[in-house]
Specification:
Elements: H1 3-8, H2 10-14, H3 25-33, H4 35-43, H5 46-58, H6 62-79
Helix pairs in contact: 3-4, 5-6
Amino acid sequence: MGRRATGDGRRETAYESHGEAAVPAELIAVLERNPWARAVFEALDRTDRCLTMLGLLRARTPRRRTAQVASTLAELRKRR
């Protein structure tokens, strides 16, 4: 999709803005099991939430998604 897709609106409908992305189910489950992680995550601004979730949002395979959930939890632990 090039300039035409951007010009006619197809690009916006094809790609969800990372800033508006929903929290993935795997991350929600981890946050529910770890109240401290949920508190840290909820204290982040929209940009930092997006950056924290970005690897998980991009992961396509179950194995990679599992690894990214662990990485996200480690990132939240650093911010504690």
